[in-house]
Specification:
Length: 703
């Protein structure tokens, strides 16, 4: 029970709950105010405009959020007028639905934020279908919708100004907690009850989450003008903690060995549980730091200390004294100690404040670490072909929306037939697996939420209590919509039913039944179309993702080898190469996960792809290990290592060409007369990398 209470307490400090409260205020307040003056006809379109603009209020830099919301407000104003004018003619309305569905669905080519703008615009079109009004009222209604959008925009900007760095704090705190979760999953290598293959699968999935969180934090910290200038000590602290946590994440990956061999060699010596325990304790320490940021608190204590590490070292020394070779475990312990020291540095930032965390030269490089989205017309023109998955998606949405509109008008299924179109817009995604997942979550959430809503309305007659439930369900709906869609829908359905009980005299059971039926119809149409109509299967576009992954690792290796050869490599160059590896690893993991959710007959060479995913994760770990080894011992390349290095370059280059024959890969010329202090260690690491690169090449040949 205490654990659940703590989890709920942690949740209410997150950015998601914060956003849920903001959206609830923005959407509900206009209707609530005008309801008091018995003028709900004014309040509802204001709330509708606020709801649509809130869709574009995605995480990211304030400037980008503001521009997206302004654009959404403009589009919903125009589309509200257009739909109002065409409502009296079902044929023209059908043409509008098909054309606008295509236009605003192809916004996906410009990224998630632009896609949100397109979705919000389609929502206002759907909400205004069948609302026949005189011309003067059409314009008045559109102006109210626009006013609601502007109101929400102002509210969102006020929330930012009230706590300018709070959102960055929350985002960074959640990112750190996901890194802690990744480390906990790595601890499972020392737990014999979980197979190594299962652990790798869990790690790849978690790395996708970590990469998404890191990209979100980069956007917030490095793209917002006020933050990019590192204008305050508070923001400089957040920046330096983020940089350190990315380095710590690299170190968590840098300890990779043959864990099946480790389990076999040390499984009966009772030493692996000590490593499992101390890594979990270290992960809890990192999670605690994340929670402190999320709660806006100063960390006050260590969960792990030097004594814990020394106790494990004593056990290793005892085993070594008995004749057992524990070199590999000592290396792992050293890496754990290094991570602990980096975490301890973050503690010191809080207790020994430093106004000069980030210098101006370093701050000027931050913009290089964030993704820059192109919004030019050339990108649109290049995607106007059936070869583009975005074009096929837009075409699919337009045809399915037209079909949904036809079904809604032909079948006698109630007065809220727009729910069919609403379901289609929300469910239908560019890929089959995402559509399948949304479909399942929408149906399950609607059915359970519908039953819960009817029970509340049947047994609770007090209007004040009902309104309290309405507030609670609205906050939870908007809090979970970006992290747990099924939970969001579960709360959304009863809040809609309660809302209808306030503004309409319709039978509650009939409304709930109609919503469930409409959702099932829309879900069926959307799911069937994603399978039959211009389907987009992951396995048929996987080679590009695989090729990008190998390119990123090849570039990462090139930077590391350049350092090995004694050349000076700017820290920014190294971090950019590392970032590209993490981003492409996450893209690969996410694409593979989507492929596994597709029909079996569409999973082309799934076993080879899975092996490729695991091998690249191993290769990245080996590269991170080599990079850290160079930093700590200043190894320089030797003739024997040079030979292995050239072979690694060859196999990685050939792997890229197998996956993308049009790629242009240049292999750097590495020559040196320097010799390392630890020649054996360097050569062993390169041989591990060479073996993994060779295995990747063999898999790439099959693909």
């Amino acid at each position: 029970m205490n654990k659940h209470i703590a989890s709920f307490r942690n949740f209410i400090y997150t950015q998601y709950f914060y956003d849920g409260i903001k959206i609830t205020i923005g959407v509900l307040l206009p209707s609530l105010i005008f309801f008091q003056f018995d003028n709900l006809l004014v309040g509802l379109p204001l709330s509708l405009g606020a709801l649509c603009v809130s869709v574009a209020d995605n995480p990211g830099p304030n400037t980008h959020k503001r521009n997206a919301m302004l654009l959404t407000a403009f589009f919903i104003f125009i589309v509200t007028i257009l739909t109002g004018l065409l409502n009296s003619n079902p044929y023209l309305l059908g043409i509008e639905i098909v054309l606008l569905s295509f236009i605003f669905s192809i916004f996906h080519i410009y990224g998630d934020r632009a896609a949100a703008v397109g979705t919000a615009t389609l929502l206002i079109m759907i909400f205004n279908i069948d609302q026949i009004r005189p011309y003067q009222q059409i314009v008045q209604h559109a102006l109210l919708v626009l006013g609601g959008g502007v109101w929400y925009l102002m509210l969102s900007l006020i929330f930012v100004q009230l706590r300018p760095y709070r959102y960055a704090q929350q985002s960074l705190g959640e990112c750190i907690q996901e890194i802690a979760t990744y480390l906990k999953k790595r601890a499972d290598f020392y737990n014999h009850t979980i197979t190594v293959d299962e652990i790798f699968k869990n790690l790849v999935n978690q790395q996708v989450i970590v990469s998404e969180q890191q990209e979100n934090v980069r956007e917030i910290l490095f793209k917002t003008n006020k933050n990019q200038n590192t204008s305050s000590a508070s923001n400089r602290l957040l920046v330096v903690i983020f940089i350190d946590m990315v380095d710590i994440f690299e170190q968590t990956m840098a300890s990779h060995y043959d864990y099946n061999v480790i389990r076999k060699q040390f499984g009966k010596l009772h030493i692996l549980p000590s490593f499992y325990g101390i890594i979990n304790k270290l992960a809890s320490e990192i999670a605690y730091l994340g929670l402190c940021l999320t709660h806006n608190q100063k960390p006050g204590r260590h969960l792990l200390n030097i004594t814990d590490l020394d106790n494990v070292k004593k056990k290793l020394d005892a085993l070594e004294a008995s004749g057992v070779s524990v070199l590999v475990l000592k290396k792992i312990l050293i890496n754990i100690r290094n991570i602990f020291n980096r975490v301890d540095d973050i503690y010191k930032y809080y207790h020994t404040p430093n106004e000069n965390f980030v210098d101006k030269d370093r701050a000027s490089d931050f913009a290089k670490f964030v993704h820059h989205q192109d919004y030019n017309l050339k990108l649109l023109k290049n995607n106007l072909t059936l070869q583009s998955s975005y074009f096929r998606h837009a075409l699919r949405v337009s045809l399915v929306m037209g079909s949904g509109f036809l079904v809604a008008n032909l079948l006698p299924i109630g007065h809220h037939s727009y729910w069919i179109l609403l379901t289609i817009v929300v469910i239908l995604k560019p890929g089959f697996s995402l559509t399948k997942q949304r479909n399942y979550e929408r149906v399950i959430g609607t059915i359970i939420g519908g039953i819960a809503g009817v029970l509340i309305l049947m047994f609770i007659k007090d209007q004040t209590i009902r309104f309290s439930f309405l507030l609670l369900f609205m906050v939870l709906t908007y809090s979970f919509q970006r992290i747990k869609y099924v939970v969001s829908v579960l709360f959304m359905t009863p809040f809609i039913l309660i809302l209808f009980s306030f503004i309409s005299a319709e039978n509650n059971i009939n409304v709930a039944t109609e919503r469930i039926v409409d959702t099932l119809i829309g879900s069926f149409i959307a799911f069937l179309s994603s399978y039959l109509l211009f389907p987009s299967w992951e396995s048929f576009k996987f080679k590009k993702v695989l090729g990008n992954m190998v390119k990123a690792n090849l570039n990462y290796f090139t930077v590391i080898v350049s350092k090995m050869a004694g050349n000076w490599v700017p820290p920014t160059t190294y971090r950019l190469a590392r970032k590209e590896v993490y981003v492409n690893t996450a893209n690969l993991g996410a694409a593979f996960k989507r492929m596994l959710n597709e029909p079996k007959n569409k999973q082309h060479k799934a076993n080879e792809v899975q092996k490729f995913v695991v091998l690249n994760h191993i290769l990245t770990s080996y590269l991170a290990n080599l990079s850290l080894s160079i930093q700590q011992t200043e190894n320089l390349i030797n003739p024997e290592a040079l030979k292995a290095t050239k072979k690694v370059f060859y196999y990685l280059k050939e792997s890229v060409l197998q996956l993308d024959e049009n790629s242009e890969i240049e292999i750097p010329s590495i020559e040196t007369n320097n010799y390392p202090q630890d020649k054996q260690l360097l050569n062993e690491q390169l041989l591990q990398i060479l073996k993994t690169a060779t295995d990747i090449y063999k898999v790439a040949e099959k693909l």
